[in-house]
Amino acid sequence: MTNNTDEAVGERLVQPTTSRLFFLVMGACLVYAGIRYHIAEGVPLAQAPLYVLNKAISLGGLAFLAMSYLVGKVAGLRWDDRQLQLVVIKFCGLVGFSLILGHVFMSLALLDPAYYAKFYGEAKFNLTGELSLSLGVFALWCFSLPTITSLPYMYDELGADRWLRSQRVGYAGLMLAAAHVLVMGLKGWLDPGDWPAAMPPITALAFVIAMVPLVLRMVTNGDEA
Questions:
Q1: pLDDT tens digits for 42-83?
Q2: Which member of 53, 68, 80, 146 lies 3.0 to 4.6 Å from 92 by CB, making a disulfide possible if both were Cys?
Q3: pLDDT beyond 80 at 112
Q4: Number of domains within the chain
Q5: Chain centroid to CA 200
């Protein structure tokens, strides 16, 4: 009975290691968004609960999704506790997807020329708006497959090969997410002189974060995630 209890505790997603990771990542995203947009750019505090928070959540969600593919390759080199490593990978994936889902709903609430003027040409979306949103939708779909197959019993139902293939769809999601923020923010990235307090836009940080697992996968010749 003691062994079963210890095993159950070890498999819990919310434990000291994952809690510290969550507060560290989200704390950094919230602080950066607050300083960059409220202090450096002068965005009114009235826009903190949705507009600025949405930026922090999108960055944090993508960071967790990227980490779910990095932990096995990087942290695994120095972690002795394989069970904890697997818990962290699953935690990052599920938390990342939930944050991105929140980002989608918040963005839909904000979808208006007053917030995203660059998406609109007269009364309709322009090419930037349509392409960016389309890429975002397909990225979300790709992230949903690894999330669904992370549910209990899915590994046994699918078998090792099909389960692993479904998890690797997340790489396509990262690629589409990188393209999503690239289309959205490239014009602003090319003008660093206009960055408030020389702080890069969150879209630029998100692009770098999404590319890290993709580049590492190419460098390691497609080793298993």
A1: 999 999 999 999 999 999 999 999 999 988 666 555 556 678
A2: 68
A3: yes
A4: 1
A5: 17
Tell me the pTM: 0.89
**Burial of 37 by CB count in 10 Å (0-12 exposed, 13-18 middle, 19+ buried)?**
buried
Supply the range of the domain harboring residue 195: 2-219
Q: Is the pLDDT of residue 204 over 50?
A: yes
Q: Burial letters for 203-217: b for 16+ Cβ neighbours within 10 Å, e otherwise?
A: bbbbbebbbbbbeeb
Residue 190 within a domain: yes
d(CA 96, CA 206) in angstroms, rounded, equals: 13
Q: What is the CATH number of the domain that holds 168?
A: 1.20.120
Locate all alpha helices (DSSP H) within the chain, ordered by sequence.
2-11, 16-33, 53-70, 82-110, 127-148, 154-158, 160-189, 202-219
Using the 8-state DSSP alphabet, how is residue 197 labeled?
G
How far is Cα of residue 8 from the mean position of the Cα atoms in its chain? 28
Give Cβ neighbours of residue 200 (< 8 Å, ≥ 6 apart). Answer: 189, 192
- The single-letter DSSP state of residue 47 is G
CA torsion, points 191, 34, 119, 105, in degrees to nearest 10?
A: 150
Mean pLDDT of 134-150: 93
Distance (Å, rounded) from C-alpha 73 to C-alpha 213? 9
